[in-house]
């Protein structure tokens, strides 16, 4: 016996649609949630975009408050700085410029032992060069494009000029660096930072928004323990980069001498 089919005025087969009604609703109905006026009024910046009140973001805030410890903004624990946008002028070498690195170069450095490309920012560039210089005591966070990647500054890159697309963070107390670096890479901090995402074609967050990230004030023993573990990871990472540099140097020497 032939199956009876019903069609709507657009010619769609309703009998087929009914079998997949759940899937159709999922594909055509965007997720939604409610938010109170009080939550909007008490949020920094009083943002009106829905993503800022995503249940994941709100749930993260509730989890932080449920810890039962004091929460302070990152700016209470560290100097947070983001250089302004500037026009780059390139130089051929260190005689006229400063070694330059961006986030992609940093990722390449930690994986391959060398930056993605060798570049020098001319000292003639119209920018306060000191504001760009990255130092060993800093923590860096990407704030444009791919947001929230957290980096240490290896000793080998101390004194290089860094892109303006990385927020510089200098802990007020050096022993806090490992803890803050670990915390900023955690879901607790990442959800807060990413909730500030804005922009048209390219996503951004500002230095002030990163500085507003709430940090739990755990007991001194816990903070010290986490800092030591993070510092050990930093040392091991730096050590692996040195081994990779040795491997690349050995390879180059063999190639230069024809095997």
From TrEMBL:
Task: Indicate yes or no for the key word DNA-binding.
Answer: yes
- What SUPFAM superfamilies is this protein classified in? DNA methylase specificity domain
- Write down what this protein is called: Type I restriction modification DNA specificity domain-containing protein
Could you mention a single GO BP entry for this protein?
DNA restriction-modification system
Could you tell me which species this protein originates from?
Acidithiobacillus thiooxidans ATCC 19377
- The answer to whether the entry has keyword DNA-binding is yes
Type I restriction modification DNA specificity domain location is 72-212
GO MF terms, alphabetically ordered: DNA binding
Q: Give the family this protein belongs to, as stated in its UniProt record.
A: Belongs to the type-I restriction system S methylase family.
- Pfam families, from UniProt? Methylase_S (PF01420)
Keyword annotations of the record:
DNA-binding, Restriction system
Which Gene3D superfamilies does this UniProt record tie to the protein?
DNA methylase specificity domains
């Amino acid at each position: 016996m032939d199956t009876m089919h019903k069609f709507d005025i657009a010619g769609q087969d309703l009998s087929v649609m009914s079998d997949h009604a759940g899937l159709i609703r999922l594909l055509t109905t965007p997720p939604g949630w409610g938010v109170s006026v009080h939550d909007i009024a008490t949020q920094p910046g009083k943002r009106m975009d829905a993503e800022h009140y995503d249940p994941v973001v709100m749930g993260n805030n509730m989890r932080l408050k449920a810890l039962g410890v004091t929460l302070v903004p990152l700016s209470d624990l560290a100097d947070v700085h983001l250089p302004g946008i500037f026009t780059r002028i390139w130089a051929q070498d260190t005689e006229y410029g400063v070694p330059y690195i961006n986030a992609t170069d940093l990722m390449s450095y930690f994986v391959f032992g060398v930056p993605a490309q060798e570049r020098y920012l001319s000292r003639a560039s119209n920018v306060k060069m000191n504001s760009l210089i990255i130092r060993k005591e800093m923590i860096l966070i990407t704030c444009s494009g791919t947001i929230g990647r957290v980096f240490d500054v290896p000793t080998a890159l101390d004194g290089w000029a860094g892109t303006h697309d990385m927020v510089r963070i200098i802990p007020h107390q050096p022993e806090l660096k490992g803890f803050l670096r670990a915390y900023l890479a955690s879901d607790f901090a990442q959800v807060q930072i990413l909730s500030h995402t804005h922009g048209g074609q390219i996503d951004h967050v500002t230095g002030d928004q990163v500085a507003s990230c709430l940090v739990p004030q755990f007991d001194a023993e816990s903070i010290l323990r986490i800092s030591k573990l993070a510092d050990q990871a930093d040392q091991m990472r730096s050590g692996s980069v040195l081994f990779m540099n040795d491997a690349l140097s050995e390879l180059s020497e063999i190639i230069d001498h024809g095997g």
